[in-house]
Amino acid sequence: MSRMQVSATFSNLVNYPRELVRTVKKEIPAVTKQVRFNAGLRYNERHELVRTGNSGQPEYVGDPTPELDAAWDELMGAVNIFITAEEEPGLGGGLPTVFHDLHCLNMIRQNLHYYWDYYPHNNASILKPHLDHCIDSIRLSLMCSGDMTVAPIIWDYNKGRFIPDFEVHHTCRDYEALKEWTLARDSEHEERWRENAARLHAEGH
After folding, report:
1. What is the pTM of this model?
2. Mean pLDDT score, 9-28
C-alpha cells in the first residue's frame, strides 16, 4: 500500500490512535513540575506599562532580532513526527498539537502589525508591552498543558499533496462549564457583579 493510500485510509478513521497514547505515556515520564510563569506586567515609576519577571531567561518577545528567532527555533520540538505501524497502522505521521500551536503563535508574533489600521483605538503606549505579555502568556500556557493530540497527515486529492488534518478529536476540559462558572463569579461587568456578589454572600462565601 502506498503512502497516499494509507494516509487516505487513516483519514476515514474515527478513533484517536490509542496505541500512540500508550507509547507517549510509556516513553514520556508521567511527572509534573511547578513552573513559575514569567510573563509579568507592571507599571514603573513613570506610570509606563512594562514587562517583568524574565531575568536570566531566553527572550521570546520584543523587537525582531536573530537572537529572538533563534530562541523560538530552540524552543520548538518537532512539528511533524513519525507514527509507527505498531502505534497506528496506516498513519505514518502527524503533528502534535502543542508544537503546531507554538508554531502558529510564532507566526502571529512575526506579523503583529497586520491589523493595526483596523483597530486605531488601541493605546500605542501600552500596546507593545501588552502584546508581548500576551504572546509570552499563551506560550507558557501551551507549554504547560502540552496537548500531544496528533493531527494526521492525509492526502488531499484536490491539491495533489499531503496535508495535515486538524479536524481531529482532542480530550478537552468542558469549556462551557468553565465559562459558566466564571460568569457566575464575574466581578467586573456592571450587569453581573452586584448580583454575583449578593449571591455569593448569601451562600456564605
Report:
1. 0.70
2. 57
